Amino acid sequence: MQDMGEALAVAMTLVLSGDGDLVEIVGLSLRVSLTATVAACAIGLPIGALVATNRFPGRGAVLVVMNALMGLPPVVVGLIVYLHLSRAGPLGFLGLLYTPAAMIIAQTILIAPIVAALSRQVIEDMHAEYADHFRSLCLNTRQTVQALLWDARYALLTVALAGFGRAVAEVGAVMIVGGNIDHMTRVMTTAIALETSKGDLPLALGLGIVLMVLALGVNALVHSLRLTAVRQAYA
After folding, report:
1. What is the mean pLDDT of each run of 10 residues along the chain (235 residues)?
2. What is the spatial distance between Cα 59 and Cα 14, in angstroms, rounded to a whole number?
3. DSSP 3-state assignment of 3?
4. HEC profile for 182-218?
5. DSSP conformation letters of 126-166
6. Where are the domains of the chain?
7. Would you identify the CATH topology of the domain 4-234?
8. Between the CA of residue 131 and those of 53, 147, 151, what are the distances in Å?
9. How many of the other CB atoms lie within 10 Å of CB of 147?
């Protein structure tokens, strides 16, 4: 176990010098999480918009399920994906287990409900404000959804960023389906857990610094987008 000050100094050196292992791990983390975020938005935004703009029997139960799925335990999601992708599972023939693709699938399942639930609230509030105007224009459901998605684009970008923040910080599911294999499926969170258990604090701290910078950057971008949305609303 190294002295904390010494470990932090080495960690900063790794970050500032662009250490190869650190850059590789960060790059894979971003690729997996960004891909999962795009996939989750492609699934969650239409679902959220349709639920927000339509009234149907059982809608209350659907809202309860959507909100409940926001709290899916990552290890449970990882286990379910593992069982489906393992050789004995129904999708085992694809050979995706212990690959970045499996990690993307797990993260997508985790954050798609978050995107759907948050976007539903955003779009429902906007739909309530413009419902009479849409009816006067005789817009169908598709046109209404398209108009709402465009008008709510800044708020929905914050939803996407919230999903990305959740994905990039996730460890349980990606550990189960990715296996934390060096130079293949090792991402920031799993590497931090491994290196800390090994007592290799510099790399763990270096990755932790990058992860914190990403978290702060995401939050700053969310704040900026909210200010932009407010200015657009009052322009």
Report:
1. 70 81 90 95 92 87 90 92 92 92 95 93 84 74 81 85 89 92 90 85 87 85 75 63
2. 52
3. coil
4. CCCCCCHHHHHHHHHHHCCHHHHHHHHHHHHHHHHHH
5. HHHHHHHHHHHTT--HHHHHHHHHHHTHHHHHHHHHHHHHH
6. 4-234
7. MetI-like fold (1.10.3720)
8. 9, 11, 13
9. 17
